[in-house]
Amino acid sequence: MRVMVLGGDGYLGWPTAMHFAAGGHEVMVVDNYLRRTIARSTGSEPLFEAPNLEARADIFGTIRDTPIEVAIGDCSEMMFLDPLFARFLPDAVVHYAEQPSAPYSMRGFHEAQLTLRNNLGVTFNLIWAVLRHKPECHIVKLGTMGEYGTPNIDIEEGWIAVGHNGREDKFLFPRQAGSLYHTTKVLDTDLLWFYVRTHDLRVTDLMQGPVYGLSTWECEGNLRLLPNFHYDDIFGTVVNRFLVQAVAGVPLTVYGKGEQTRGYLNLKDTLQCVRLAAEKPASPGELRIFNQFTEQFTVNELAARVKRVSAALRLPVEIRSIPNPRKEKEEHYYNAKHSGLLELGLQPHFMTDDVLTQMIETIIPFKADIDSNKILPRVRWS
Amino acid sequence: MRVMVLGGDGYLGWPTAMHFAAGGHEVMVVDNYLRRTIARSTGSEPLFEAPNLEARADIFGTIRDTPIEVAIGDCSEMMFLDPLFARFLPDAVVHYAEQPSAPYSMRGFHEAQLTLRNNLGVTFNLIWAVLRHKPECHIVKLGTMGEYGTPNIDIEEGWIAVGHNGREDKFLFPRQAGSLYHTTKVLDTDLLWFYVRTHDLRVTDLMQGPVYGLSTWECEGNLRLLPNFHYDDIFGTVVNRFLVQAVAGVPLTVYGKGEQTRGYLNLKDTLQCVRLAAEKPASPGELRIFNQFTEQFTVNELAARVKRVSAALRLPVEIRSIPNPRKEKEEHYYNAKHSGLLELGLQPHFMTDDVLTQMIETIIPFKADIDSNKILPRVRWS
After folding, report:
1. Strand, helix or coil at B141?
2. Average per-residue pLDDT in chain B?
3. CA 20 to 30 Å from A361, out of A90, A260, A316, B155?
4. Is residue B186 part of a domain?
5. What is the pLDDT of residue A50?
6. Residue A382 is assigned to a structural domain of this protein
7. Closest to B151 (Cβ–Cβ): which among A163, A169, A187?
8. CA distances from B352 to B231, B265, B358 (A)
9. Do the beta carbons of residue B76 and residue B30 sit within 8 Å?
10. By the 8 A CB rule, do A148 and A336 touch?
11. Which residues, listed in sequence order, are joined to residue B141 by a DSSP beta bridge?
């Protein structure tokens, strides 16, 4: 299978590219280093600097004797994406090429505009590249569980049957997200669903929860193949952030009451999910939606786990509640279904004490590089 | 009240501006003539050429001794909209500044991109101009009934309570539109709802059905104050198109089976609805949604009415079914609620035989200008 990974430099993108290549697929990664640019401009550099894509592809190719093709450019520019797509003619495109930070998208007009234009622009261009050159190409789109928000009803996998005044119909599950970034993914879904039903595109939308982890099968033993690992308030997801706080010896900062519940997954499971989806594609005219996470926790539960595991490693950890910079419910009902990917063959890697211990042990050598100033929230929602 | 009308050159925009000005409000109209540009480039000029905005404002000002301020520019450029908004500081903004043609949005990549960028870009910039300069300003946004599509359940006014597995929550009514143009209005709604709930904007979203009519109170007796009147396949709404076909002596072209049902309203009622909404604004943090139409008809019923009225005027009319250029259900359930605007004070002008007769009599003097080549569909959905 020919697989194009848009946003191939990212936390998920590079491990995904390696995983497909190691699985025998022909892979092209595409990126314009937008995340690196934003990280530099906001003082949110990762814990260690990952080599650029050409260099990572060289290292990987040398070790595995498997090439990964690299293209550097902006997919929100059709003059870049269209000929690239037409030349590679992928069977599947994994679309990660979005500005992925909720706090960044809430920083001000410029950041919001960039997020909206980039995210929707790339999705739109990709749709048209597929329509023009290879309508049977399968789009695997990274959505987010955040699209659903925290409704007072069970969250189904993308769709819901609604009965009303004695009649019934099936609709996209209601979406109302908590940041502009998450809202752009709602818009992506609306746009994809329109072109799926009018032009018979094949799309899988993966509604992913927060991911944690910093090592995958294909990078074992080579630090230069690790994904970029963020622990800052802009790009750092909560588990990664807590683990770095534990290593740095600063308090774990819980936003508000800490009863926010989300569905989490291991980075290795992201790779499995994306590969499983690509290897068993959606049908023409199908928008297939999976909720992509393996376990639900509250933020307080996560903090307690990290504290417990850290204590065993003789890292004393304090948990501290700070004012919530976000506008979100801090106590709410949350019950999200997530059986679709298990049925497709996902073998979950749960958040065991061993997993957290290994992550902490990988972070410890970088302790001197941790900048605690990057961890506390610098962006407020209002 | 200070009222800014974005898209003030349009079929709805100019009559709205006159109506507010005649009602004693201070009015600024803003437009970049995008619709005129598209009309020229697609050979879809209106039945008669309306003077430009400056000229229309001059004529109106002379007759009524009431100024309408004119600003020409592109609201999707923040460097244009932001200082203009900051100077005028409106109490209400009526936002019509969108590419309004479904067929145009389905013509190809360029047209789709222009529609997406313009429509979402203007909405986004307007949100930020309000946030920056006058957060209490009320946004009156023209949505469309087409956002809902043709669901198999009753269409409520914007919101629906959903019961599921023994629990309940309230959500935006499901939206799945039939063209990219209509889909951009779904995206507008998602975007507005996000900023309403995070930043307490005041927004009224008017879900309008197809409008007909070519004269309003403020232009009676002066042809140069009439709105631009389109009868073509790109900008012409179905009633206006049928009436022109009747005058031209060509068959009324019904798309497919003709059982498509929609909610229609008179142009005069659009003006009432927008004024009523502006004079009684939404509260901070409220996205208030009204379904804006007064009567439901099938296309076949409309064609039969036009045929009957035309016969009385000795205009022989043939009704002809042609292959449907759109991808839409031609037979479907349709029952849309529309009590909110009546409760606000709307006095409907129904589609009586007299109303249709008057419209035909206004069109007859322009019979020689009708270009029948503009009427048949030139854009297919697939």
Report:
1. strand
2. 97
3. A260
4. yes
5. 94
6. no
7. A169
8. 20, 12, 10
9. no
10. yes
11. B95, B205
Contact at CB, A168 and B153, closer than 8 angstroms: yes
Residue B220 has pLDDT above 90, yes or no: no
Q: How far apart are CA A100 and CA A275, in angstroms?
A: 21
Decide if pLDDT at A21 tops 80: yes
Angle, alpha carbons B331-B333-B334 (nearest 5°): 110
CA gap B233, A312 in Å, rounded: 72
The Cα–Cα gap between B8 and A36 comes to 42
Q: What is the DSSP string of B316-378?
A: ---EEEE--SS---SS----B---HHHHHT-------HHHHHHHHHHHGGGGGG--GGGTS--
Shortest Cα–Cα distance, A182 to chain B (Å): 10
Tell me, what's the pLDDT at B309?
Answer: 97
Task: Choose the mutation target among A106, A164, A172 for the interface with B, i.e. most B CBs under 10 Å.
Answer: A164
Whole-angstrom distance, CA of residue B122 vs CA of residue B137: 16
- Which of A112, A194, A327 lies closest to B180 in CB terms? A194
E strands, B53-120, where? 68-72, 92-95
> For the domain that residue A54 is a member of, what is the CATH number?
3.40.50.720
Closest CB to B174 among A168, A171, A178: A171
- Domain range for B139 is 2-374
Note whether residue A380 is domain-resident: no
Q: Which residues of A are catalytic?
A: 144, 181, 185
For every residue of B233-265, DSSP letters joined together read TTT--HHHHHHHHHHHT--EEEETT---EEEEE
Could you give the ipTM of this predicted complex? Answer: 0.97
Kindly report the nearest CA distance between residue B286 and chain A, in angstroms: 15
pLDDT band with cut points at 50, 70 and 90 for residue A382: confident
Q: Is A48 exposed, middle or buried, given 0-12, 13-18 or 19+ CB atoms closer than 10 A?
A: middle
**What residues of chain B have any CB closer than 8 angstroms to a CB in chain A?**
78, 109, 112-113, 116, 120, 124, 128, 132, 151-154, 156, 160, 162-165, 167-169, 171-172, 174-178, 180, 183, 186-187, 190-191, 193-194, 197-199, 327, 333, 381-382
Give me the active site residues of B, please. 144, 181, 185
Identify the three-state secondary structure at position B275: helix
CB atoms within 10 A of CB A326: 19
Closest alpha carbon to A219 in A1, A6, A8, A14: A14
Preferred mutation among B78, B187, B379 to probe A, highest tally of A CBs within 10 A = B187
Report the gap between the CA of B348 and the closest CA in chain A (Å). Answer: 27
Question: Considering only CB atoms, which chain B residues are within 8 Å of A186?
Answer: 190
Say whether A113 and B78 touch across the interface (CB within 8 A).
yes
When pLDDT is cut at 50, 70 and 90, the band that residue A156 belongs to is very high
Q: Distance between CA atoms of A271 and A277, rounded to whole angstroms?
A: 10
Smallest Cβ–Cβ distance between A382 and the set B124, B175, B199 belongs to: B199
Is B192 domain-assigned?
yes
CA within 13 Å, CB half, A293:
24
Nearest Cα neighbor of A80 from A116, A129, A120, A26 is A129
Q: pLDDT over 90 for what percent of chain A?
A: 98
Number of domains forming the structure of chain B: 1
The DSSP secondary structure of A334-367, one letter per residue, reads: --B---HHHHHT-------HHHHHHHHHHHGGGG
Contacts of A174 in chain B (CB under 8 A): 162, 169, 171-172, 174
> Do the Cβ atoms of A124 and B132 come within 8 Å?
no
CA-CA distances (angstroms) from residue B19 to A186, B97, B218, B262, B273? 37, 18, 6, 26, 11
Choose the mutation target among A107, A162, A199 for the interface with B, i.e. most B CBs under 10 Å. A162
Scanning the structure block, which residue is given the tokens 């009868």? B231
* SS3 call for B49: coil
Nearest-Cα residue of chain B relative to residue A179: B194
The predicted pLDDT at position B137 comes to 98
